[in-house]
Amino acid sequence: MIKQTAFKLITTLALLASIGGCTIKSKEQTKQAPIATPSTTKEDKEATKQKQIAYLKEHEKEIVDFVKAQSPKIKSVQIDWNSMQIEESGNGTPQGGGYNLSISGKINQLENTKFSVDFYLEDQNSIPTIKKMGMLNDIYIEENGGWKIFS
Predict the structure, then answer these.
(1) What is the spatial distance between Cα 105 and Cα 118, in angstroms, rounded to a whole number?
(2) CA separation for the pair 115, 134 (Å, rounded)
(3) For residues 128 and 55, is the Cβ–Cβ distance under 8 A?
(4) Which residue, among 115, 108, 99, has the nearest Cα to 149 in the 3D structure?
(5) Helix 60-68 with 42-58: angle, nearest 10 deg
(6) pLDDT tier at 41, thresholds 50, 70, 90
(7) Per-domain residue ranges of the chain
(8) What is the pLDDT of residue 24?
């Protein structure tokens, strides 16, 4: 009787182990290999950035005029093309609100000034458009050790 119970127990354990092994093997076979997309390569990101900067440079006059329109005291605008940044926008929802491209600079040849012009983007690889240009922050000037709104 004990031999028969031991045989049933060993047979049951062997059966369960083989079923578990088959299940693990089938899961491994169904895993997909990661797909490399062109937008994830460093070269493609750099090419996209260069296209975005090229668009902004083509529309430099519109950007300069937009910044000058913020105050009659602004006589000249110096854009720092190396300052371009793209950040994800948050709008309080889990999916977010798209992306924001910003480019900064100075006004009136003054080193103690700063501004930032912003462009809404659908995704990080989108080309900005002048139609979606704005300023999320005021123009600032540093005076007496602190930043004040330029007016």
Answers:
(1) 12
(2) 11
(3) yes
(4) 115
(5) 60
(6) confident
(7) 43-149
(8) 52
Using alpha carbons, list the distances in angstroms from residue 56 to 32, 51, 70, 109, 130.
40, 9, 19, 20, 8
> Is the pTM higher than 0.85?
no
* 67 phi and psi angles, rounded to 5 deg: -65, -45
C-alpha to C-alpha distance for 114 and 120, rounded to whole angstroms? 20
Question: 121 forms bridges with which residues in the sheet?
Answer: 99
Which pLDDT band holds residue 129 (cuts at 50, 70, 90)? very high
More confident residue, 12 or 54: 54
DSSP tag of 10: H
Q: Is 108 left (phi over 0), alpha (psi -120 to 50) or beta?
A: left
Lowest mean pLDDT among 2-11, 12-21, 41-50, 105-114: 12-21
The Cα-based distances of 98 to 48, 49, 52, 93, 118 in angstroms read 17, 17, 16, 11, 13
Please name every residue paired with 102 in a beta bridge, in sequence order, or none if there are none.
85, 118
